Amino acid sequence: xxxxxTEAINDHKAILSNFDSKDFLAIENIANxxxxxxxxxGCIFWCGNGGSASQANHxxxxxxxxxxxxxxxxxxxxxxxx
Length: 82
What we know:
Elements: H1 2-17, H2 21-39, E1 43-49, H3 51-63, E2 75-81
Parallel strand pairs: 1-2
């Protein structure tokens, strides 16, 4: 088990070590588009297939303030395929 965990961690390290300024800029641009959409009463489409559908659902809750906070209503569409 320790070997599998170490391998997974090393895989993640390798991916992160290859990030460059273009990757960070792309992530920042996407984050800004989501923020702009939320500020301007826009829509967010969340997509997922199988287990990724659950991850998309969880991400939407986290990005819009979590489950237990009073938050502004947002328009979100869930496009899932199981």
